[in-house]
UniProtKB/TrEMBL annotation:
Source organism: Paenibacillus xylanivorans
Binding site for [4Fe-4S] cluster: 636, 642, 676, 680
Cofactors required: [4Fe-4S] cluster; FAD; [2Fe-2S] cluster; siroheme
NCBIfam families in the record: nitri_red_nirB
Stretches assigned to the FAD/NAD(P)-binding domain: 7-282
Domain Nitrite/Sulfite reductase ferredoxin-like: 557-619
Domain NADH-rubredoxin oxidoreductase C-terminal: 318-385
Protein name: Nitrite reductase
Manner of cofactor binding, per the entry note: Binds 1 [4Fe-4S] cluster per subunit. Binds 1 siroheme per subunit.
Family annotation (InterPro entries): BFD-like_2Fe2S-bd_dom, BFD-like_2Fe2S-bd_dom_sf, FAD/NAD-bd_sf, FAD/NAD-binding_dom, FAD/NAD-linked_Rdtase_dimer_sf, NasD-like, NiRdtase/SiRdtase_haem-b_fer, Nit/Sulf_reduc_fer-like_dom_sf
Known pathway: Nitrogen metabolism; nitrate reduction (assimilation)
Domain of life: Bacteria
Stretches assigned to the BFD-like [2Fe-2S]-binding domain: 418-467, 482-531
Length: 809
């Protein structure tokens, strides 16, 4: 420690405290900093806990500042250590073990904890909050043993917990006291749309329900409500709200109301002791959202470093959230009343909703659902109390040419507007970094400012800011290697493979100068795919460069068994095939047979050694449910049976599935074909969605119903089946040749641009036919993997009767 420096102690190692520290480090080196955290982890992103719960990210993935960061800045970190009080007389903080540490200045950033309803039975086993990694771990373990869960609370945390538990295979019911979800952020219309979307994702709801008692013995077994109805469950997550953690302040004699009371510079009633974040109360308000805590931290950092700053006047509360893949936004007043003028637009096809409220023609509030492109502009206008005009109406209510989303206008964003909500990075910070540090890529901005390093949802806006600042000098995707083993981009690698005639992943790595001779789990599958895409007739697929599901031609489950999904073209099967599936399921003790979202049957729980026998006895094509390939073509019954059907969707779905199955693609790929615009097969969330009408077909591309949900964009309309098949083939081949490995079409469309794709596959007929010829050539080289595996007895013995296989390449 440097004795000449002031000793700054941070009580709390969460997002608010460490964000403040990051701001302090930018302004001054005058402090010797010590941080205390109760949890055994470095600073991590609580916003991302739901991703850890559902399994798409690990704890390491959500760490914001790893242990090396603390070391690099000379910060002393005490994890697993709880500070109980601050001794102002001796200027020391005191830990639960009685250890004392001196301070010149201290910042309390203890955050908040889950509020547990004080109903009878709340202390039973199987009742947990959802606030930290420990809660996540309890929920992950519970999902392995129990099947029915209730989440009490229909706010953001409750809905994220519900989505995570559904992803873990639990049957989940959200219990909410009010009739509308997220009633503090959304109006009834947006709430209804959100509920409908989450129901499609498998979440159940019990609305207007007051919890009276948790039933059971030592462990919870049910919930009794105020109307005496009962919900049978074996696990409960309490997500009814948060309470500020004020214990340290109370025991230190600091003024506390609901939170720790501070002035406009975040000073508590104790000299040289400050408070920031969810534990804090400013002008009677405790904030539970991310943006205010970052605003508080920036002002506190300047004040504590002696830099001139405006005082904190409170935050204009707005909510911009992604709930289970659905974007929602609200700001200002969002519940309309007779005194409001209401401007609203609802699109059931795109599942979007926009509402703006006026009072005496002044904009006072807004709600967005599904498409939040205009959130920054609306927030600025409402903050400025802008008067509505015809010109302004045309601007804020427009969805862009042809019904496509218009790009967010970064020019109109205020410099202090937060772009990266996970890390509190403003537009001004990004602009300054680009200008002062000479940054030219999103990765460089991420390393310098922290923007995009968490959920990545702000990446498109960050890239727009980069383009806005650099102008003609901007090049999308510059200096972004495909992984840490190489600085080469996807396009550079593909070009060099073609130029040098490289044929294997090892050859690519050796010739192109990989830093890791064996590569990694990111680059090896990618190179294997690029080689196969470039030379489908000569490339020998490298199974060791594929993930376990693709090597085994089946999806591995958490208990080590596998699923088998045979093809059912267009979701149609025969009684004979159904009987065969049932007989084999009984013979091989299949644990469950599930109807999938793609209209097929999933045989769950097949032992590894039984996989070849199941494939042989089924004698059906592989459904590729495990592959980065065409998964399913979902169809409605169409004109064959439906009184509304205008096109034969079942026949077209089966034709497309038979034609394009088995071909390797950058990521999994799904179709849907509707016989009419009623959209029963849900074309709006598929990679290619096809909608029949009286004059032919309309093609939509880039839809995604996963974690990052996206509604498909309308590409074009065609009159004949032949045109439809040719365009679908051209789209798929263009995607194969230009997408990054693992890049879904939803991301590809946004990166490449809809107009550019339309120019290549629709407008340029010559190029379209060339793309179709190339995909036809590639299709000639593929064969059914189950039949191929059955012919290879040596491979069978190695894979299905040998040692356990690694999940990664």
């Amino acid at each position: 420690m440097n004795g000449n420096k002031e000793k700054l102690v941070i009580v709390g190692n969460g997002m608010a405290g460490i964000s403040t520290v990051e701001q302090i480090l930018k302004l001054s080196s005058r402090f010797d900093i010590t941080v205390f955290g109760t949890e055994p982890y470095p600073n991590y992103n609580r916003i991302m806990l739901s991703y850890v719960l559902e399994g798409s990210k690990t704890v390491d993935d959500i760490v914001l500042n790893d242990l090396h960061w603390y070391e690099d800045y000379g910060i002393t970190l005490h994890t697993g250590t709880t500070v109980t009080r601050i001794d102002s007389k001796s200027h020391e903080v005191v830990t639960a073990e009685g250890a004392r540490f001196p301070y010149d200045k201290a910042i309390i950033a203890t955050g908040s904890s889950s509020f547990i309803l004080p109903v009878p039975g709340h202390d039973k086993q199987g009742v947990v909050g959802f606030r930290d990694i420990a809660d996540c771990n309890v929920m992950l373990e519970a999902a392995k043993q129990y099947k029915k869960a209730a989440v009490i609370g229909g706010g953001l945390l409750g809905l994220e917990a519900a989505k995570g538990l559904v992803q873990l295979g639990m049957e989940v019911t959200v219990v909410h006291l009010m009739e509308d979800l997220m009633e503090r952020q959304l109006d009834p219309q947006a709430s209804t749309m959100l509920k409908a979307e989450l129901e499609r994702q498998g979440i159940r709801f019990k609305m207007g329900a007051q919890t009276a008692e948790l039933l059971g013995g030592e462990r919870v077994e049910g919930i009794r409500f105020a109307d005496d109805s009962v919900l049978n469950i074996d696990f409960v997550v309490m997500a009814v709200g948060i309470k500020p953690n004020t214990g340290v302040a109370r025991d230190s004699g600091i003024e506390v109301n609901r939170g720790i009371v501070v002035d406009d510079y975040m000073q508590t009633s104790l000299d040289n002791v400050y408070s920031v974040g969810e534990c804090t109360e400013h002008r009677g308000v405790c904030y539970g959202l991310v943006a205010p805590l970052f605003e508080q931290g920036m002002i506190l950092a300047k004040h504590i470093c002696g830099v001139e700053t405006a005082h904190y006047e409170g935050s204009v509360v707005s909510t911009k959230l992604k709930i289970s893949g659905v974007d929602v936004f609200s700001t200002g007043e969002f519940i309309d009343s007779p005194e409001h003028t209401v401007i609203a637009h609802k699109d059931d096809w795109k599942r979007t909703y926009k509402k703006i409220l006026l009072r005496d023609n002044i904009m006072v509030g807004a709600v967005l659902f599904g498409d939040i492109t205009d959130s920054a502009e609306l927030q600025k206008l409402i903050k400025q109390q802008a008067e509505m005009t015809d010109e302004l109406y045309a601007s804020v209510m427009s969805t862009g040419c042809g019904g496509h989303k218009k790009a967010a206008s970064v020019e109109t964003m205020a410099e202090d507007e937060i772009v990266c909500g996970c890390n509190g990075v403003t537009k001004g910070t990004i602009v300054d970094a680009i200008t002062n540090e000479g940054l030219t890529s999103v990765d460089e901005i991420k390393a310098c400012t922290g923007a995009t390093r968490s959920c990545g949802g702000c990446k498109p806006v960050v890239e727009q800011i980069l383009q806005y600042v650099l102008g003609d000098n901007f090049t999308a995707g510059t200096k972004q290697g495909i992984c840490g083993c190489t600085s080469l981009s996807r396009d550079e690698i593909v070009a060099k493979i073609r130029q040098k005639g490289l044929q294997t992943t090892k050859e690519v790595m050796q010739v192109l100068g990989w830093s890791q001779p064996e590569g990694c789990s990111k680059c090896r599958p990618a190179i294997n795919y690029y080689l196969g895409m470039i030379a489908p007739d000569t490339h020998v697929d490298e199974k060791e460069s594929r993930f376990v599901n693709e090597r085994m031609n089946a999806n591995i489950q958490k208990d080590g068994t596998y699923t088998v999904v045979p093809r059912m073209y267009g979701g149609v099967t025969t009684p004979e095939d159904l009987k065969r599936i049932a007989d084999i399921s009984v013979k091989y003790d299949v644990k469950a047979v599930k109807v999938t979202g793609g209209q097929r049957l999933d045989l769950i729980g097949v032992k590894k050694e039984d996989l070849p026998k199941v494939w042989a006895e089924l004698d059906m094509p592989s459904g590729y449910a495990y592959a980065k390939s065409l998964r399913t073509v979902k169809t409605c019954v169409g004109s064959q049976f439906c009184r509304f059907g205008t096109q034969d969707s079942m026949a077209m779905g089966a034709l497309l599935e038979r034609k394009f199955e088995r071909l390797d693609l950058p990521a999994k790929f799904k179709y849907a074909v509707n016989g009419c615009p009623r959209n029963c097969a849900e074309s709006c969330t598929k990679d290619i969605g096809i909608v029949g009408n009286d004059g032919g077909w309309e093609i939509f591309i880039g839809g995604n119903g996963g974690i990052k949900a996206r509604l498909a964009d309308s590409l074009c309309k065609v009159k004949t089946d032949e045109e439809l098949v040719e365009l679908c083939g051209a789209i798929m081949q263009h995607y194969r040749e230009t997408a990054n490995y693992l890049e879904r079409t939803s991301e590809w469309v946004e990166r490449i641009g809809l107009e550019q794709i339309r120019a290549v596959v629709v407008d340029d007929v010559k190029e379209r036919k060339a793309l179709m010829e190339r995909i036809e050539f590639a299709l000639e080289q593929v064969e059914d993997p189950w039949k191929k595996a059955l012919r290879n007895e040596e491979g069978q013995n190695k894979l299905f009767h040998g040692i356990e296989v690694s999940a990664r390449p």
